[in-house]
Each structure stands twice: as structure tokens, then as C-alpha cells.
């Protein structure tokens, strides 16, 4: 009996879509490393002080802290140009500081003062500054993604060469409007970098329990949007990924997704006791992956002395304390401010 012919093994499929090259960690100079260290430390000390003021009742409403995630915004926003725009959700204090907004103006906004960046009417969740190309601070989960696509459209329409950096979290990544925005952004090749700050727990449920596809960088595949997963606890990895994403988008190839694997040390907001995870888990991340301690170690290897870093710490604590003092002492808005900024009045 003749032996049946065997079919040769099929060759692996050849990808039919161009993809960006894998990013490499940014090769920072000593001065750049020191700048990253200062920025991350400013965000952390600012957020710690905000937590204290919330506990004292000087900050009302909701307050979502960025402690633990500092490397993401510092790494990405250090790669931006002055043409680019930034939009995010309600965990927004650090992003604002990186857009060049003074700590005292952000803190005054948190305490609802007239000298705040949004005249005390935005508070923690709804800060905004067109002058600094920071477009919020948005309280509706995922709403900033659609608005970010709109900012990308504006950059393309005007031909200004700008790119929108649109941040959202792992919880927001399951919102329907996110996928409508993905579809439009890819169809029109909009200059948008969709940044998923995956801090593992969304509002309080592990991403592994809440998302059937927990590799969030793959979420754009059905829209032909490439994605890259990044160590969001390493500022150099974040900067390298930011440069690669900007290179892709500025070349007119459309949007890209960056999933930043990060971790928040505090609860979802100041009212969250975070009982869904153990103290041991949080402590293990702090000890093994803290973004600030990582850069501190690199600076030591570059010859930066402990005394110099202590001076940086003192200067930043002074800046944050002065911001808090200013925020406590400056006046609240006049009642007539209720009726301003209701409409833009220019179309």
C-alpha cells in the first residue's frame, strides 16, 4: 500500500502590517538623570502634601494621587515638544506639574482658591490650561480618550506638527468610547499616542479579573493600531518608548498605543482603603521597583554624592511647603465667579 504524501509544514505567516521597532531604554546623561529625579521627586512630595491637606479637610471632593506612577509621565513628557498637547483623567496633578504649571498654582486649585490654575472651580479632577497645552483633568472615565482624538484631529487639521498624548487607565480601557476613538484615529491617521497607565487595579479590581484580554497593548489590533508594552516603573524605558512612539506618529503613520505597566502605592482615591491587596504586595513593589530609588541608584553610579541628593530633597520640600502655605492663605473665589467661564463665547 502506497504511503500517503505528507503535507509540508506551513511557513509562519508574514506580518502584513508595519510595526514600530521595539524601543530601547533612553541613554540619559548625568544631567538628564538628575532632571528626571527632580521631577519625579517633586511629583511624589507634592502628592504626599496633597494627601495631608486632604486629611486636614483643606482639599474637598475627590483626590487621586499619582504616587508610584511618576516614571510614566516624567519619561513620556520629557520627550515632547512645545507643539504637543496632553490630556488625562482625574489622576492629573503630576501631569500638570510637568506641563510647566507652578506647584503653587496646582495646589491652590486643589484647595479651591481663586489663584488656582482654574480659578478654584476645577479642583483636583478638572484642572485645565490651554496656555500650557494641558487639556484636563477629566472626571468621566474614558472621556479624555475621545477628546484626545479630537486634539489629534486639531493638530492634523492645522498642520502644526503637534501630537496629542492621551492618558487613560486600565479601567478606562474597557470603555466603549475608547474603541470608537481608536477606529476614527486610525482611519484618519491622527497624531495621537494612546497611553494606558496600567496600575494593575483600576478602581479596585485586578485587571486580570476585569479584562478578558489583560495584555492591554494589544487592544488596538483589530483597528490596525500597533501597541507596545513598557516597564512603567523605569523612567528610561518610558522615555525610550515615548521617543519611539513620537517617531512613528510624526511620520504620519497614525496612532499608537503604549501600555505602561506601573503601580500605584495608594488607594484609587483618598477615600479608598485599598483592602483588595495586601500591604506586603505594596511593600514588595516599593522595595524592588520604586522608580525614584532606581534613578537614585543610577545617579550614585554616575558619581552624584548623597549630599547633593539631600540638597535636591530639601529644595523640593521647600517648594512644596511654600505651595501648601500659599494654597492655605490665598482667597477663595468671589461668588460672581459662579457665572464666568460657562461658555467659551467664541466659536
Lay out the secondary structure.
Blueprint (H helix, E strand, L loop, with lengths): L29 H26 L14 H8 L7 E3 L5 H6 L4 H8 L32 H16 L5 E6 L6 H12 L4 E7 L8 H4 L16 E5 L3 H16 L5 E6 L17 H11 L1 H11 L4 H24 L18
Parallel strand pairs: 1-2, 2-3, 3-5, 4-5
Helix pairs in contact: 1-2, 1-10, 1-11, 2-8, 4-11, 5-6
Overall description:
- By secondary structure, the protein is an alpha/beta fold.
- The chain is 41% helix and 8% strand.
- It contains 11 helices and 5 strands; from the N terminus they run H-H-E-H-H-H-E-H-E-H-E-H-E-H-H-H.
- Strands 1-2-3-5-4 form a 5-stranded parallel beta sheet, with helices on both faces.
- Helix 8 links the parallel strand 4 and strand 5.
Strand order of the largest sheet: 1-2-3-5-4
Number of helices: 11
Structural class category: alpha/beta
Which overall shape is indicated by the principal axes computed on the Cα atoms? globular
Please summarize the sheet with the most strands: 5 strands, parallel
Order of helices and strands: HHEHHHEHEHEHEHHH
How many whole angstroms does the radius of gyration measure?
A: 22 Å
Total number of strands: 5
Regions with little confidence, pLDDT below 50 for 5+ residues: none
For the terminal residues, how far apart are their CA atoms?
A: 83 Å
What would the keywords be for this entry?
single chain, 347 residues, alpha/beta, 5-stranded parallel β-sheet
